[in-house]
Amino acid sequence: MSTTFWVNGERQTVDVDPAKPLLWVLREQLALTGTKFGCGIAQCGACTVHIDGVAMRSCVTPVSDVDGRQVTTIEGLSSESGELHPLQQAWIDHQVPQCGYCQSGQLMSATALLADNPNPSDADIDAAMSGNICRCGMYGRIRQAIKATSVASVSDEPLFYSVAGVDHV
Amino acid sequence: MSKLSRRAFIATGLVAGGGLVVGIAMRPGNQAKSLAAKLGPDGEDLVHTYIKIDSNNVVTAVIPHSEMGQGVHTALGQMLAEELDADWEQVQVEEAPAIGEYASYSAGRRYLFANIDFPNLVIPTVDGMMMNVADTLNLQITGGSMSVRTTGILAMRIAGAATREMLQQAAAESWGVPVEEVTTADSYVIHAASNRREPYAAFADTVAAMSPSQTPQFKNPADYKIVGKFVPRRDIPAKVDGSAKFALDVRVPDMAYASVVRSPVPGGSVVELDDGAARSMAGVIDVVVIPQSSVGGMLGETLSTEAVAVVADSYWTANEAVKTLQVTWSETGFESVDSDGIYAQFERDITGGTERQSDRVTGEVSAEFASAARVIDADYHVPFLAHTCMEPLNATADVKSDRAEIWVGCQNPLGFRRDVAAILDMDPEQVTLHNHMMGGGFGRKARPDYAMQVALLSRSVGRPVQLIWSREEDVRQDFYRPAVQSRFRAAFDSSDRLVAWENTYTNKNEPIEAPLIPYRVAAQDIGYVSSPVHIPFGAWRSVDHSQHGFFTESFIDEAAVAVGRDPYEFRAELLQDNPRHLAVLRRAAEEADWNRPLGAGRGRGISLQESFGSLVAQVVEVTVTDGQLSVDRVVAVIDPGLAVAPDGIAAQLESGIIYGLTAALHGEITVENGAVVQSNFHDYPSVRMREAPRIETHVINSGHDIGGAGEPGTPGIAPALANAVFDATGLRIRQLPLGNFDLNYQAEEEGVVG
């Protein structure tokens, strides 16, 4: 049985079991490996994509559910000219990723948040981002990067660290 | 890159692909005969090659360590580029291949054979570890927070400085000027008097024929332009657009996918298998019983017990099919073991004190307790923990009759190659291992069982296979941070001075100094008993420090409270012999404004922990409202000697703290009927955004030897947190995770829960 949907603006038709989760269709049929497998039960958020603009867990979304719908993955976040999404740039500026494995999902959740709410409060960030686990624990940097990209961003927000002392090995 | 000569004695450069490859030689026979003997018959393997310079003057630093988010490729690249006097914008970093020439033996040289001033306490630990691993050249380990302080100091800096000297020499000869007049800057050699300036690449061919010094002159640190400065990590851009390739993203032509299941009780094998439902599923290719195999290694034996794998044309299909398998597993004898029984066993073994071994005995402990004005005692315990790396264990293999290829993310590529070769009955040279950046490691990915499984699986089905563990398998088939019980007594004299410290705990691993305390207590007796369990041991971020940090820094807090002292001032007084420790502790108290009054329901706690050569103090502030615990703020101060990558150090502290906070608040693997109960993030939760505190980090460059960064943040968060909960509620919690306890509990007498 075939399913037709749009991924990052491109029309795709796949002939797979309609129960197969979107995550595995993206990774196996469409060679879009930026979306990650973390838990398989919508607990960790590593597989987050946008479906019609809403952040969803692709590991529990049967591909049949996206028939006729628009899917955006991490590979589709930058502009057509290749310019990074402002949040992607903020992720670099704030040196957010460590291992990086969860960051596709983090970015998909964060971009969905800012699209809905360009000036999120801390509570808004907590609510939107708590479905995404980062085992490297980069929550403080994620929060900073989101705030730096929000409409009401305060430029030059102080870093949370300082270095002092002598310089020798 | 072509394979380097295994016969090379002193490293010479070699021209490869129009560029220069410069090697730094260290012959173990010169200073490390005992290590060389353990390295096998061909001690001349010890030739390292770390630098390439291409015709565009781009320098590539070849890094013999694995990247799992700790930033090691960038930090080691900084150290090399600094001494090379390279233009950082024209420096690339790449991971070394898994071949013997890139064995990371410098750890062995650093700790075993150089005339070092590393704390004596640590040497036996590293000694023992290195002796275990050094019996072959197959050590390419990333762990123990060691990369910067071993490979960075002993290989990267030397490679950079020696190459810079050769470039100066080559230029001087070419220009006919004294070498003393030739300087370097930003990947150029310069002779100011004659106004000559040429890129390093111009002399690459010449330098390739020269022999590098093993004792080059290092830069004056005051002149550093790259080390100690903020430089963006090189691996980050690919991690924000989905282009970073993890092992899970490997695609090999004709590749099938597999999922796997083992006996819930460790050690069980297949008695009966009904795979009818699985085989009837569309897309299923085969069902394979992967036989048990085992290998040796630095962590001891890794036993990969029998498993059943389903191979299919999709991972989802394979994993759905695994769920339909009806497997009867053999009895192991552990079917009646549960967590309560394990803790009861610990209690018996500590009380029995059978064959108690000592870590430290000083002073007259018995006499001090006999004459003490006051004695306090307490028992602590912590549970087993799983690692739960974000990237579930996975590996891809293509095994032919005479060779094999493995794609994996691991913390010891050479070791994995050796292990895979061993179980396939091949020579290591027949196995090509491609190491990928890891979605977390935390010690788990030093164990090769998942690579061993996929190698056997690929051979069995005769095609390339990508094996992905389900999260359930990942949680239930880990090598676990051990559960430990620890019993304390402390004695005070009539002036309320702490005069004796007695501690007995279960099951010692590494590092051996983990249970020791930095405080001046005249009489100490610290030791352990063996209390074997069937749950397999694994190194887990900070290893034994993760338990003992909680135990000792909680009990020293109890000691302060027992005599009515402020926990910070009490510690500070006992650190008069350790000014470096005291400076770190004091800085944390200052940054946290220790004496600022907190409101009702709020509290703060402090901890101090030395681990992996670095010192970390933490102050945690909490709010407890209607029994709900909120971790509001963590102030962390680290003295790593010198922060090579200051933002990297800060990031590692933040990371280590959240990793430890997950364990402190939620982390608990329990055992029922011999099997691990938990299976995924719903019942083995991690700290999420809404629970994550504000973390402020401060780095002290004290100028002492460089310490580690990856692990030292982890041990101190649990005790500082538990001490803060005590400050807020009066409840002394002696067992983790804290989430198990009712913070509404109204303590009637002692204020002790657990």
Number of strands of chain B: 32
- CATH class annotation of the largest domain in chain B: Alpha Beta
CATH topology of the largest domain in chain A: Ubiquitin-like (UB roll)
| Low-confidence runs of at least 5 consecutive residues of chain B | 1-48, 109-118, 126-137
Summary keywords:
heterodimer; A: 169 residues; Ubiquitin-like (UB roll); DNA polymerase, domain 1; 2 domains; 5-stranded mixed β-sheet; 6 strands; 29% helix; B: 754 residues; alpha+beta; Aldehyde Oxidoreductase, domain 4; 28% helix; globular
What would you say this structure looks like, in words?
The complex is a heterodimer of chains A (169) and B (754). The longest helix of chain A has 14 residues, at 103-116. Chain A is globular, with a radius of gyration of 17 Å. Helix content of chain A is 29%, strand content 17%. Chain A is built from five helices and six strands. Chain A is an alpha+beta fold. Chain B has three domains: 14-239, Aldehyde oxidase/xanthine dehydrogenase, molybdopterin binding domain (Aldehyde Oxidoreductase, domain 4), CATH 3.30.365.10; 247-332 and 393-468, Aldehyde Oxidoreductase, domain 4 (2-Layer Sandwich); 353-385 and 480-753, Aldehyde oxidase/xanthine dehydrogenase, molybdopterin binding domain (Aldehyde Oxidoreductase, domain 4). In chain B, a hairpin with a 2-residue loop joins strand 28 and strand 29 (675-676). The relative contact order of chain B is 0.11. The chains are: A alpha+beta (169), B alpha+beta (754). At the A-B interface, helix 1, helix 2, helix 3, helix 4 and helix 5 of A face helix 9, helix 18 and strand 30 of B. Strand 6 (161-165) of chain A pairs parallel with strand 30 of chain B, so a sheet runs across the interface.
